[in-house]
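Hi R.,

Here's the input for the magnesium ion complex you asked about:
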Amino acid sequence: RAKREGGDLYRFFEPAMDQRLMERRAMERDLRAAIERNELYLVYQPQFDTMTGELVGQEALLRWCHPERGIVPPADFVPLAEESGFILPLGLWALERACTEAASWPVPCRVAVNLSPAQFRQPDLIAVITAILERSGLPPQRLKMEVTEGLLISDTERALTLLHALKEKGIFLSLDDFGTGYSSLSYLRRFPFDELKIDQSFVGGLGRDLGSAAIIEAVLALSRSLGLSVVAEGVETEEQMRMLRDWKCPRVQGFLLGRPVRSDELFSTATWVRTPAELQLQALHPRQ
Ligand code: C2E
Ligand code: MG
Ligand code: MG
Ligand code: MG
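And here is the predicted structure with magnesium ion in place:
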């Protein structure tokens, strides 16, 4: 088509496409080597109970420190890993690392691990997760798995079976990025989730547009009647925090309350428990 539209155009952008493809291949190759080269690590972001201020969880987020590119955000390499199939070993690496690190924390909060829909196609997923939990010594009750709506739509029956199996093990199930996918509200009733995470785009809209506020209030009312917990993610301002607390949103996560940091920085420093955000949270909810 390009050729018909202008003879030179074709020759003009072909090398650019080549370039991009080669970049991708290089990234893929580097990513496959990244685990052994020790370039991957996890950072953890706290999740708090809005009413008590208690730390209820830490979400594990993948980071890749590339020797030339520096820190590559997961949005740039997780999709690549999903397309190449490398997400299976990568996802298991993250799970094992998260469980092992969480097992050594002084506070027995949950560790939340993101699971790619592609990982649900792994035939022995439940057995592998069981083995990882046993090796790490982390009780299944302390593991939370975050999955996105895409999983529920692509292979509904398999997703149902696997999620029930995880739930039976005692693993806590969270539906991530809620509101951004195409799943219907009936999914919430059919699937054994314990919690849903309101996507940060809605939280970001608080105080800016009425639509976001309306959606958050509706989701909170719905989850209350379904007996689900809720995490609002991406809380950045005190105003957002105040609104969420007024609406009795049970849990919050975001830069206001804590940025993701490495496991060894989580509890070792006294600074963590005394971040300004933590003090703010306490001030908002003085304990009686
Ligand atoms: P997610 O699971 O929805 O994670 C939340 C993202 O929001 C994280 O980005 C986090 O750093 C960011 N975030 C948290 N609080 C705030 C805030 O107050 N403001 C803003 N603007 N952002 C905030 P991150 O670490 O870049 O991860 C992006 C996505 O990459 C994750 O979205 C998740 O889908 C994926 N991901 C990360 N780690 C893993 C992993 O181990 N496995 C899989 N399959 N996916 C992962
Ligand atoms: Mg998540
Ligand atoms: Mg999310
Ligand atoms: Mg997200």
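One thing worth noting: DSSP finds 14 helices and ten strands in the chain.

Cheers,
M.
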